[in-house]
Amino acid sequence: MKKLITGLLLASSFLASAAQTEFTPKQLKQVEQLKENISKSNLSFNILESLTTEIGPRLPGSKNDALAVAWAQAKFKELGFDKVWIEKATFPKWQRFSESGKILTPSEQPLHLTALGNSVSTPKEGITAAVVLFETLDELIAAPKDSLKGKIAYINYKMNRHIDGNGYGPAVKARSNGAVEAAKKGAIAYMMRSVSTAHHRFAHTGGSHYQAGVKKIPNVTIANPDADQIARLVALNKNVTVNINVQTKNYGEGTSYNVIGQFNGSENPEQYVLIGGHLDSWDLGTGALDDGAGVALTMAAAKHISDIKRPKRSIRVVLFAAEELGLWGAKAYFKQHETELDKIVAAAESDFGADVVYGFESNVNAASLPVVRAIAKQLASLNVQYIGKNSAKGGPDLIPLKNTTNAPIFELHQDGTDYFDYHHTADDTLDKVNPDKLRQNTASYAVFALMAADAKTTIKAKPTQ
Length: 465
Ligand SMILES: [Zn+2]
Known about the structure:
Elements: H1 2-22, H2 25-39, H3 43-55, H4 63-78, E1 83-105, E2 109-110, E3 113-115, E4 127-134, H5 137-141, E5 152-155, H6 168-184, E6 189-193, E7 219-222, H7 224-235, E8 241-263, E9 268-278, H8 288-308, E10 313-320, H9 328-336, E11 344-349, E12 357-363, H10 369-379, E13 385-387, H11 399-404, E14 409-414, H12 419-422, H13 435-454
Parallel strand pairs: 4-5, 5-6, 6-7, 9-10, 9-11, 12-13
Antiparallel strand pairs: 1-2, 1-8, 3-7, 4-8, 8-10, 12-14
This protein binds zinc ion.
Zinc ion binds next to α8.
């Protein structure tokens, strides 16, 4: 027991000394001041309110998307960022015009549906056909060739609720590839249960794609209660026919812009901490949770840091374009900056709603871990726990970065228990955001970004194998 206690004492004094060598007492005081200032500020909520009220939905390539790009540049300037600029991104532009659905047999009933992004239109009168139910995408893939001729393929897969959103990945496979697999079997349309944990009657949209050489068929999701209804009817051995009607348009290549704001570092301004979110959203709601919150809280975090000091390295806020249609802004950003990715000393994206941050995780080399632990120590008073696995994945817009190089990626894990109740629906609106929780997110990002930018040691990625 005595040995253990001595060991613990040694370990904690080692941690304390690591924090001291990375940060002076003055710097640690500044971190305290930063937390104090944010606890009394409504800045992130005010930014979010402005974006979701004055612009609203921001589908890539839409008029609102262009308005959002102008809004973001003006907001960065208003907040006093040293440098504000835009970088072009292109993507396949798509728009939804109208959508409706009905169950026709065994009795007529409304069907709440929405087109998935990229879906082609039905004929003007819609498509009326019998529904063939599969529980999973694999089950559909295993169906005999031509067995769905003239039918609507339907996947009934239910995603599970979890704090880290781990039900999303397995469920989203049916959204990405369902229409392609259904068309291969001869189906004339594809329908799926929403990728959702909700009980409300909204359908959840999302990205989908077609495959060259496979017929493009209309591609829709239905609300969870409607999915339950269809499943019950099929279980009763009823011949279930539905009419689905979606009117959409694919325009070919569209253009938007990543909007970037930077506070320059005082010693090594070319090195920077990258934080941000994506500026675009789906067209159904106002994109408050996805991802207005990430935009607002990272803009506010940087501004709060600048009120305290200019850390050694720069703080760069990147608002990525066209994430929802396939990470197009992020692909453009990391391509354009391909030769200087080693200037990124830490990267974190907030794109998981606005519930509290509960965990802090790094993905860095061993020499950077004392800095990470010192940051974790300062996050503890915000109820953020240190997750010591050192294998953070980061937000979706960091995927193109990880695909290019090993980068020092961080994750401020948010509670996503309720995120998929609202995700990609008409119900993703400002009232779902709790100002206190958004403040806690803002403070967590600000503490992380300030300390990563101001540490004695420059944080580095794990060495490439
Ligand atoms: Zn998002």
